[in-house]
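Problem: given the chain below (1532 residues), write out its structure.
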Amino acid sequence: MASKVIPWYKRKHGSRVKTDYAYQHSKTVVTQHAERKSSSKSASQVQAQATEAMAEPAYTIPEFRQRAAEETEEYQRVSTNVGKGLAVIQEELSRMRITTKARVDSLNIQREVRDMMAKRPEYLDDIPKMPDFLVALRPHTVWEKTPVKLFCTVQGNPRPIVKWYKGGAPVDPLSAPGKYKIENKYGVHSLIISRCAVSDTAEYSAVATNQHGTATSKATVTVKRASGAGESCHLGLVPHLTEIHPSKLEVTLLDRFKVSFGVEGGSISLVCSMVVIPDLPNVPPIAQWYRDDKLLKAGKLAEMSVGGGAARLTLPHLAKDDEGLYTLRIFTKDGTAEHSAYLFVSDAAPSAAGAPGAPMSVKAYDINSDYVLVAWKPPNTVNEAAISGYFVDRCEAGSDTWVQCNDAPVKVCKYPVHGLKVGRSYHFRVRAVNSAGISRPSRKSDKVTALDDAESQRLQVIKIEGRYDIVIKDDDLEGYVTIPGEPTDVHASEVFKSYVVLSWSPPSPRGRAPLWYVIEKVCCRSTCLAGTGAWQRINTAVKLHSPRYPVFDLQDGQKYQFRVYSVNLYGSSEASAPSEPVEKVDEDGVPSAPGQVIATRNTKSSVFVQWDAPKSPKNLMGYYIDGRVVGAKEWFPCNHKPFKHTRFVVHGLIPGETYAFRVQAVNVFGLSEESQESSPIAVEPALGKGVEYATPSAPFGITMLSCDGASITLAWKSPKHCGGSKVNAYYVDKRNADSLVWKEVNQSAITERTCTVENLTEGTFYEFKVQAGNMAGVGVPSAPSAPMKCEAWTMDEPGPAYDLSFSEVRGHSLVVLWKAPVYTGASAVTGYFVEMAKKGSSEFVTLNEEAVSHRYLQATGLEEGATYVFKVRAVNASGVGKASQLSEPVCAKALPGTKEILASVDEETGDIFLSLEACEICETSKFVWSKNYKPIGDCPRVSVSTKGRTSRLTFTSPDKDDLGRYSVVVTDTDGVSGSHTLTEDALNTMLELSYAIRHPVVPLKHGLNYEILEKGHVRFWLQAVKLSPSVSYRFIVNDKEVTSGEGHKISHDVATGVIQMTVDHFTRANEGTYTVQIHDGKAKTQSSLVLVGDVFKAALKEAEFQRKEHIRKQGPHFSEYLYFTVTEDCTVMLACKVANVKKETTFHWYKEDDEIVPETPPNVMSGACALPIPLFSRKDHGVYKAVLGDDRGKDTSVFDISGQVFDDIINAIAHIAGASASDLVLQCTPEGIRLQCYMSYYTEEMKTVWKHKESKIASSEKMRIGGTAEMAWMQICDPSDKEKGHYSIEISDGVKTHTRTFDLSGQAYTDAYEEYLRLKAAAFAEKNRGRVVGGLPDVVTIMEQKSLSLTCTVWGEPTPEVTWFKNEQEVASTEHTKVTFDGGKFASLVINQVTPDDSGKYSINVRNKYGGEFVEITVSVYRHGEKIPEPKLGQPKTPAATPAATPAATPVPRSPAPPSKTPTPTPSKSHTPAPSVKSPGSTPASTPVPKSPTPVPKSPTPTPKSPTPTPSRGVKSPTPPRFMKSPTPPRK
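Solution.
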């Protein structure tokens, strides 16, 4: 809405009124004040006192100014006159002073009153007030079982609380749910009693309470019971209630719904407003809605409401089923009031382009327990491909899952659905199919339940005395029947090309057992008779319960007979009599085409079409009507649901357009051929339908524009209906307001809508009326004007503007136009003010703050759909004149199909023009162009041309003088108009385009460019936007034209607009400037390319490279050169792809010119070769080369793994390894605490960072960083409390960082530290314990009488003790057996002249305080001449000891090893270190190696030595020599 602006003339006028009021009020106050103050004094005394107050002190005349007697007399005379004048002046001054003071006091009083009035609501809100009922309860008398509502309005401060009572008892809604409802809305308190009973008759009261008091309002509710229904009210007589039946209401329909258009899936409401007398809210009129004369029922698809002065039908889910003629029928006192209008529902957007519309009117017939016949109506196909069939879908009620019933499309609009489940309810829908796709589904059918209709027919109902029903079943009449009788009347109820439906009558007697049927068929050409075995059963897989069955698999051209058996659990009946021969053919086809189609005029947007019925109707469903604009090829549907009659009104056409129509007939087989087209007809209103339409309607709005005392100038508005032809005459009549006789003012026609009536009598009142005429005659006269007094206008302000009209009405704006006033006043009109108000409102808003000099104004900010009225006031130097007569109400809504003025340039001529395509037009319509809303007329600067519904305004020589606002109005329409403001920028843009059209240039998409092709050819090309077949062109190189020939190929393609030249051999001689000149009709252009210097060198280099590439690819070559990939196990693969190879082609790998022979030879025939590089690290730096060759040549690919390439490979490995990294694991060692991170592969070249408390850790003696191929580790040597905290490892792949963390603090650190101390102590003990370093064999074989020397080296710190045993008995040193231990290092056992008794198991026990070792030797002694015995205990053979030169023979020891030092633990892939192997008989003195990182309690203190060695301690070390810990503790 436009903002409210108060013009200057209103502000001035308001100020004057306010001042006058203040003056009058001041006079009153002064008078009252004087009467109160001077009631006892006369007016003369007041004046005398005022004179004294105004007088000055006495004045003494100096001597030199004293006068003579005559002078004194003259002086006194003059003084007397002057004194009188002064007295008058003083009296006036006194009066003005009193008046001024009174006015000031009055103004102060007014200001104080205004301030008090402004604060009054606040004071009132603060004033405490006890409750008071503004609207009290009133008594009600109602019928039983009807509701009643008691309401009241109460005020008070603070707001009162209202409680309800019935007979003094509080009303509790919870005591009787649904009975009472208490509401409080907007200060209105109400009690609603639903379904009143006689017991509800009582006195009800509403009690309002606040802190200042209580108020009560009471009323009686009397409930009356209808006569004969029981006792009347116990309170006594009830006043008679006059029942008002809805049919006794007087109903007048007002705004009626028009022809409407909807789209599938949308919604629409049909509304008809009405006046109801009496208007009772609880007794609305009875309204019925019909579609095509069928009564509609309210439901989900049709919502109905009556009340509030309107009847409404809402269709929330539109489908084509809803199309039809809708009728509203209201029952009134005098009968019925009806209104009808057609609703069109068009197809929604198809699911696929070209797909048909959805079918409609899907219904189910012939419902049985497992069979239903579904039928529907076909959609209209106008521009789509013909329908090839339909799919039928079913859905169980309550489910959203649709199941397709037929595998192949059915070609007719019927389909038998079988296989239903008894007692289930179903919905059905249909989809149409054509070559473009499948349509949207139809609206689903009503719910149907699969029940056997024969069951209900077997029931008989007998009424007794009209009150009781006795139901008898046929089962009771048949008696006890086991085997049923045979079915009867087997026949084909539906015969189509795609299926046949068999029907029969159920058997009688039937029996009580469940019944089903078996069907057999036989070909009629067979000589077999019934019972001979030629009959074939056709429902083998279906247990049929209904007396209906569809058969689909019959052959074309064959005749069949059918028979049916009845079957139950007792057996089968005899076969029924065979049916008549049935052949699967169409009973009927589509109808013949309708006859002659005739179209006649109806209204300005509709045409009446009628046609002859087809000669062969063939069960006609209806007709489809199509239309098209004459000159257009495509047809459009006029209706979307078959129409049953042979006449139809086509609505929604464009006024003034010319159409042709055709009709198709519809039946179950589809659409007939199209009828012949009707004759073309223009859409215009029909003439001759009545006088009111043939001649114009009455003019209206007669107003006076000027009067000079002897004449009156009148104006009026055009008739609302012109009668079908242009209004070309007006006739004015007049009469004295006191007379009944009219007199003609003009005998000759007036063409304008103004007239000056002469020869009038001044001071007399006159009335006027006007008639309009056209080619059909003179229309009815207007209503008499209001009496107008013939009195000369003498005001200085101008008279009223007139002839208000509207243009360019849109949803939020419109343009108001008017004519200048005839009476201008004392001076010329300088401007205008426009005022606006909504229809029915008296609050006008001034749209322009400053007066506009032109006679038009655009009103913006309107509310779309709202209706407004306007008036205009003219302004001159004297002020603002009279307001014009109110305009006609105008609705802010654009006409359907409204288009705006288009500013463009003619593509052929280059002319700049403005054009408008009218959304409606008639024969008498004209396009009136204006500039700044002044008709252009004949002007040499522009020319106007009209063709059909389009008018064009063409500028002859456009320049700045043509700038402005252009508008056009189409006469004899409902306000078709538009405007366009031509700006300087827009004009300059169109001038440039006009120049380009008049001086055409071939537009180019791409200028001249070049590209290098394979073989080293160079292609020079450009692309035009469009080329004609007659295009000519030439290539110029270095100012010489080049033609197609040897070394150059020149061609063009009209379809793509490409012109090209190919140079086969590009050399240094081709350097220079290339130009293409094109001529195509009148248009021409050229494009150049400078190919010199570095640009040419680059092109030449690329051409030579492509030439070499072409030669290379003639033999075996690399289609993809070497590149690298990294596998999931972090193996680096150097890969390449080869092409044009054969079996004889060889492939070799090289690194730094040294050939690499992979384990798997490369297979060139696979097209790809790869070299794996496992455990990639810096050692794999270098230049790799792949060589491919055969007798046709060879090719080489080089890959340098260094620099950035090496970094990229490491990052790729880090990406995979980082993703596979495990969480950090704690491992304790004798050196310290180690954190380990396992991953698929680790190398020190990876960007790995260890952090402690977010600080980077550098490798040092304290913090050692290292890793293996399987993990990265960080070891804290000799840990302390400083090393507690959060540790993390970050593995970066250049893009992403993979982080793993471990919190080494708290209990985790304590446990790890204890385990470290334990392992450290164990390592020290292991390092210094007693052990056999080497020299002893496992097995010794020796001949008797030889000397045996068992000597070994031992070690330990401190020096260990050595003890020898034989068969677990300590060996003492004797002459035969000598034991020695030299230097604490060498231990020996020498047996002189061994005998067989010396055979046995010998062992040595080496031990100190840290532990020891126990080693066993098996000695076998054999006699001379005996076979050397085999080694025992599964030991390998040992050569016999060779006797030494000395009597003692010393065997050769096995690989003696030096004393081992404590090794640095080497991490393994396992998360836990390998446990050490210990003897089964070891004592607690031996310290085991832990099996897991979890700390283990320390070993207990060693126990004293046992006197006897523990048996079975001969477990040997896993590595030779097999070191084993001693089973006995060391000696003290």
